[in-house]
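[Structure tokenization] protein backbone as discrete codes
[Encoding] learned vocabulary of local backbone shapes
[Protein] chain in single-letter code, fold in tokens
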Amino acid sequence: MRYVIIRDDDTNALTPEACLERLYRPFLERGFPVNLATIPEVALDARLPDGTPEGFLAYRNGTTNRTAPIGANARLVSYLGDNKGYEIIQHGLHHDYLEFDRVARPMVAHWLERGTKSLMEAGFPRPKTFVAPYDKFSPAALREAAERFSVISSGWYELRRLPRRWWPRYAWKKARAAPHWRIGQTLLLSHPGCLLSYVRPYERIVETIRQQINQRQLTVLVTHWWEYFREQKPDEAFIGVLHETAEFLANEPEIRVISFSELANGTMPLN
């Protein structure tokens, strides 16, 4: 049996619930959990290094505040609460550029706790999984996250970004060419890049996903909801690729789609 986790990044107070419904109804109807990496208090001036606004800010719609907590979008919170197939995982705090790659350890602890508090105040369960913006951590941020979360999902791990006491365990992971590894009670997952992305050739995406799933026991598929609605316009072809992915997963008896919580609870085997 092979396992797949769907991780959609950047749900935040600006996200229209209709976008998630359009994208993930075929997954929910099949009983597939959808893990939403949710920004607790999104920065409404978040920008990339070249000054380009983050893609999800297309839905800012004139809001002038510096940040917006997820709980401010009552319709989104209600929709997510009514559809239990969604699992909320913690995605940074504000989603400022590389925010968990540059901060000192005492501030990291504060930001992690503040983000968790914001999600819980909106009515969501305490998250068990953490995703850093851009999958980038400092050693201090990784250490603090591992103390608070059962699962950390990232693209990859670099020696220079790890706490020094983790180095022997990391060397063993590298020697085994293992995509996933543990530090204490925390499971650290890697993923094969954003396979579901509008910058990839649409006609090759599903086959690439198939190939990646065949290479490992557990595959984390990462995508971003706003990429399907760039500038608030639906990309019908790309949405079709996502729904084709759901059909592919449903038709493969040796693939099971699971949630991060199933890993965190220790109910899924992982070599």
